[in-house]
Structures are given as structure tokens and as C-alpha cells.
Amino acid sequence: MKKRTFVALAAACGLSLALAGAAYADQLADIKAKGTITVATEMHYAPFDMLVDGKYEGINRDLFDAVAKELGVKPQYIDLPWSSVLPGLEAGKFDFVDAPVTITAERAARYRFTLPMGIATVALLKRAGDNAIKAPADIAGKIAGSQKGSAQLAQLKSYAATLPKKVDIREYVNIDEAMADLAAGRIEAVANSMPLMGYAAVKRPDTFALVMPPFGQPKYFAWVARKGDETKTLVDAINAALLKMHKDGRLDAINKKWLGATPELPTTMPSVN
Known about the structure:
With 273 residues, the chain is an alpha/beta fold. The chain folds into 2 domains: 24-119 and 221-259, Periplasmic binding protein-like II (D-Maltodextrin-Binding Protein, domain 2); 122-215, D-Maltodextrin-Binding Protein, domain 2. It is built from 10 helices and 14 strands. Strands 1, 5, 6, 7, 8 and 14 form a 6-stranded mixed beta sheet that branches. Strands 11-10-12-9-13 form a 5-stranded mixed beta sheet, with helices on both faces.
């Protein structure tokens, strides 16, 4: 056999094997073989994810602990700045994201979402006793903040553009920094998901108050995996676990524990926009 022909056949064979390997790649099978699933989030997003005396707590910790048990694996959690979470997933630095990621069309094109596990509709937090802000529109001409790179920041900007006076919008690395500036009087409102803002108001009633109603289109939080055929079985298994928790009451119990309420969450994928 001529050398050139042999090289060509070898290359073709190698390509076929690589394609076959890609076709049969199954992230769930790999995770079960390891016995662990490594997930990342930003642990500064109470009540979903937070560090309390160095310990990871919150809605997502309770939910994902239960999901991992259903999968038959142990979860390993990584704390990252929000700006590093989704890029880290795409780079393959961990298996999955258990942060509450707002479902949007743009993100759905890049990631594989699970069923919703939280409400992401935007609401405002103000300082307790601030009677100048009684409704969302009252931030016209004032200073408001939100988290850099978040869907809630994008909704705040869209909403502010409809108001008669310009809103001075400040962007923060994490929402804790925004709330610290609100408490110190450096800004007048913070925009983020209604559960997050409501939790802050309940925990610190002398400092914060929730502004109702929420604004913008109804949105949902979900967890995400990488896009690709290899993640389908993983997300299907996680969805099956979430549906089981819907039916047996565990999901409602976890939300009741942290929110004092049980939000209405869809059991099918909502439309994205």
C-alpha cells in the first residue's frame, strides 16, 4: 500500500472513531461512573445561593442536594463570581450550573435549560421608610442599581427607557454590593428578581422594603447544562427529579422554608423571549 493511501485511510478511520465517540458521548453516564456531579453557582444571591458562616445554603442547595440524590451521585459545589459561571460551563470546567439563570431566548440558543425552579420577574427594593418610591415608576430621575450581566439589569434598562426622567443606573459585580449601597444611601433602589428582593425585605425590615408590583414580563429561573446531544440525558434526568419533587411536595416545602410561600412554577418548558 502506498504511504499516501495508508495515511489517508488512517486519517479517515480516526475521524470516524472520533465522530462515533462524539455521537455516543453521554454526560449523565460519565457523571454516574464518577459518582459525583460538579456544579457551580454564585453564592451571593440569597435566598437561592448564599454562604452562611462559610457554609453553602439556600433554595438551590436544598433543591440540588435532593436532585443529586435522585441521580444517585454526590454533588460538589463551586462558588464563582457570576461573570465566570456561564463562561466556565462552556469551557467545560464543571458539569452543570445550579445558579438561578433567567430563561431567555438568547441563552436558550447557547445552553440547555432545565424546567423552571424559581420566579425571575423583576421587582424593586428601596430603603425602609422611603415614601418617595411607592411604585416602580417612581424611580424616574433617581439612582437605581442591579447586577452586571444579569437579565434583571437588562429589564431595568428597558423599563427605565419608558419613564419620563432618566434613571441613573449603576451596575454591580454582585447583588450584595448593590444592597450595601442602597442601605448606605448611595443609591435609591435595587432591581432584581422578586424572591430575592422580597427575602431581603423580610430579613432586614428596618433597612429595606419591597416595592410592588413587579415590572416587566413574567420570567423564570432554571438551571443550565452545556448545549449539545451529550447533555440531553442529564437534563432529562434532572427534569424527572424536579417533576417528582413537584408531585411529592418536596419542592413546595423547600420554597416554603426559604420564602414563606410556594410560587406557581410550570411543569413544562415556558416559551422564551
